[in-house]
Amino acid sequence: MKFDTTKGKCIIFSAPSGAGKTTIVRYLLREIPQLEFSISAASRQPRGREVDGLDYHFLSVEAFKDKIKKEEFVEWEEVYKDNFYGTLKSEVKKAWDNNKVVVFDVDAQGGINLKRIFGNNALSVFIKPPSLFVLEQRLKNRRTETKQQIEMRLNKAKEELSYANQFDYVLLNDNLEKACYEIKKIILAFINNE
């Protein structure tokens, strides 16, 4: 599939699991009508109340690999063994065809890859938790993962925090209301070329 990465704008959000990324993205989607969420593909089972086609496009490992072969992804990666995540070209094209600004909610490596691909047409934002301790408490309070999964996510978070300086903007989420207000201003300026 031929894909023009300069056709529209996009905003990339990355953060360690539990940093508040999804909450902030949902707030922005409600507040800024020009934004449209790009639903990522994932080769894992839904967690909690996640819904196929709304939170992610849940695919089998085989189906995901088939889409890789067919070059249907803007970018993709194997985050854990047989646990793939990717950005579908069709999602981006759909949003841009409707004159929307695409919003990505991806891990740090995915965010860096997307920024490299979209360049100045993208604003990349890394959401940083106040501390690893706070992050651990947030993950435990979700009650959606085992102790072993939380440990794995904390190890991944340490790695992801080291990538923060590769993003256009680092947003500290120590006060959700303040973080939402701050990032809304930045995004509106980016959309309006200010």
Give a description of the structure.
With 194 residues, the chain is α/β, with parallel strands linked by helices. It has one domain: P-loop containing nucleotide triphosphate hydrolases (Rossmann fold, 3-Layer(aba) Sandwich), CATH 3.40.50.300. 42% of the residues lie in helices and 22% in strands. The protein has 7 helices and 9 strands, in the order E-H-E-E-E-H-E-E-H-E-H-E-H-H-E-H. The strands form 2 sheets. A 5-stranded parallel β-sheet has the order 2-7-1-8-9, sandwiched between helices. Strands 4-3-6-5 form a 4-stranded mixed β-sheet, sandwiched between helices. Helix 1 (21-31) crosses helix 7 and helix 5 packs antiparallel against helix 6 (147-161).
Secondary structure layout plus pairing:
Layout (H helix, E strand, L loop, with lengths): L9 E5 L6 H11 L3 E3 L3 E2 L14 E2 L2 H9 L3 E8 L2 E6 H9 L3 E6 L1 H11 L3 E7 L3 H11 L4 H15 L7 E4 L3 H16 L3
Parallel strand pairs: 1-7, 1-8, 2-7, 3-4, 8-9
Antiparallel strand pairs: 3-6, 5-6
